[in-house]
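For homework, think about our next protein:
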Amino acid sequence: MPVMDEFKEERAALKQAGLKVKLIYFWDYYKWYVIAALIIIGVIISQVKFYMEKKDVVFHAGLLNASEVVVSMEDGAHTNEFAVYTGIDTENEEILFDNSMSIGPGMADSYNSAQKLVVYLSAAEIDVMVADVSIVIQYAYQNDFMDMRNILSPEQLEQYQDRFYYIDKAKVEAISNQLSAVDYSGNGVVYPDPFDPESMEDPVPVGVRIPAQCRLTKEYYLNGPDQVCSVLVNTKHLDMSLKFIDFMCN
C-alpha cells in the first residue's frame, strides 16, 4: 500500500480514537517541536521579565583592593546609606559599589583585574575610582581623571583644597610614554609627590584624599593608607559623583 494511503487510513482511525490515544499520537510525532517551542517561549519570557525588572544604574563606583566587612549582606545593603544620602529611589534605580578588582603587588588576580578595569574605563562604566595613591597615580598620569577645578563648586574647592591629590601636567606626556614598561610598583618612573603641588611645574588636582575613617569603611576594608577618590573623565553621572565625594569626606 502506498505511504500516502497508509497515512490517510491512520488519520481516519485516529479520528475515531479516544483522547488518550490522540495525545499519545501527538506526543510521538510532535514532542520535539513542543519542547523547542517551550524553550523559545521560556527564553522570551525570561528576557521580557529581565528588562522589565532591570533598574537604571545611576552611579557606579570602582573600589580597588577593597573587601567587604560583612560578605553575607543582602543585595544593596552596602549602598543603602549612600542611597538615603542622595535620595535615590532604590525601587527603580541602582547603585553599584564594585570591589571585584584587586590590582598591585601581591594581588593574585592583578592582571585580570587590570584588564577588567581597562574595559570599564573604555566603556565608561565607572563614574569614580577609589584606591590607594600607589594605584591611582598610574591612571592619573594617563589622563583618566577630571580636573577638580572644573567640576567642584567654589565651596567644595575651598573645603577640599587641603585634601587634593595632584598630578604635574607638565610631566604627563613624558611619564605616559614609559608606562607600558612599568610594573605596578612604579619601577622606572619617578612620580612627583601628589600632595605637594608646590614641587610641580603645572599642578592639577585630579582627586580628593578621603578620611581614614570615612563612611565607606563601615562596609569595606580599604587596602592602603592613603585612599583617593577621583572622577573619571567619561563619567555618565557627574552630579552623583560629586555627591559621592561629599558623602565620603563629610
Confidence is low (pLDDT under 50) at residues 180-186. Residues 92 and 102 are 30 Å apart (CA to CA).
